Amino acid sequence: MKTIFYKADSRGYADHGWLKSSHTFSFANYYNPERMNFGVLRVINDDFVEGGMGFGRHPHRDMEIISIPLEGKLKHGDNMGSVGVVEKGDIQVMSAGTGVMHSEENGSDTEAVKFLQIWVIPNKQDVTPRYDDLNFEEKLVPNQLLQILSPNADDDGVWIHQDAWFNWGKFTEDTTVDYKFHKEGNGLYVFVLEGGAIVDAQQLDRRDSIGIWDTNNVELKFQKGTEVLLMEVPMDLPQ
Q1: Could you list the mean pLDDT of each consecutive 10-residue stretch along the chain, which spans 239 residues?
Q2: Domain end point (choices 91, 110, 131)
Q3: Start and end of every Pirin N-terminal domain (predicted)?
């Protein structure tokens, strides 16, 4: 088993006043050739956007873009006619495919919104753009992982064009989980939102993360009061 560990304060940071963002991987003005991606997991941005502000309409293509609010409201709009407002406990996904124009803005004029912006490189290019969102919080069971994303449209959670599985967990007690990988050759990226965890004898605290690969399963020890996002993704980039 191989691992790579990132402390929260080792991330790139950008402060634009209305936007404050911590970048796990190279993004915009933050460039680190040793932190470009984890397999097909290309972007994890931990964003804070002031009330009444946001990312105006801009283009993307051939990328799976996932947004998960942590506090406040996130308002989506695009040239496909899709609109939506997502909050804590929701997940939003957009396949940019052949090209899409979209905006992601604060849904409140007064309260800040905090959310994760995640990009996954797809296994298919030039797909038809699409948007979807759903609430997963009502299905959460304390001290268990809940699948919130997969490659399958008829499976639990939203779906994307990639052999990726995301799980969310909230732990009210110390809990050990034996995570079994869905696909050989995949890696697992563990991102601790709150609380702490121990993975491969490594202590993870708030906003720390660890990537694990070259194994079929891994023991995850979550501490009381922990909220965590697990992202299983292929390690080989598409040709």
Answers
A1: 98 97 97 97 98 96 98 96 96 98 96 98 97 96 98 96 98 98 98 98 98 97 98 94
A2: 131
A3: 13-120
- pTM score, two decimals? 0.97
Backbone angles phi, psi at 196, to 5 degrees: -160, 165
102 is in an annotated binding site: yes
Domain that holds residue 151: 138-234
**Residue 60 marked as a ligand binder:** yes
20 and 100 part of one domain: yes
In this structure, the answer to whether residues 121 and 193 fall within a common structural domain is no
Are 132 and 157 spatial neighbours (Cβ–Cβ below 8 Å)?
Answer: no
CATH of the domain at 167: 2.60.120.10
Size (the chain), residues: 239
Question: Is 58 flagged in the annotation as binding?
Answer: yes
Work out the angle at residue 50's Cα, subtended by the Cα atoms of residues 190 and 71, and round it to the nearest 5 degrees.
40
> Which residues have a Cβ under 8 Å from the Cβ of 42 and sit 6 or more positions away?
25, 36, 63, 119, 120, 121
Domain total of the chain: 2
**Contacts (Cβ under 8 Å, ≥6 apart) of 46:** 11, 21, 22, 23, 24, 114, 116, 207
Amino acid at 232: E
Report yes or no on 239 lying in a domain. Answer: no
Torsion-angle region of 153 (φ positive above 0: left; ψ -120 to 50: alpha; else: beta): alpha
34 and 127 within one domain? yes
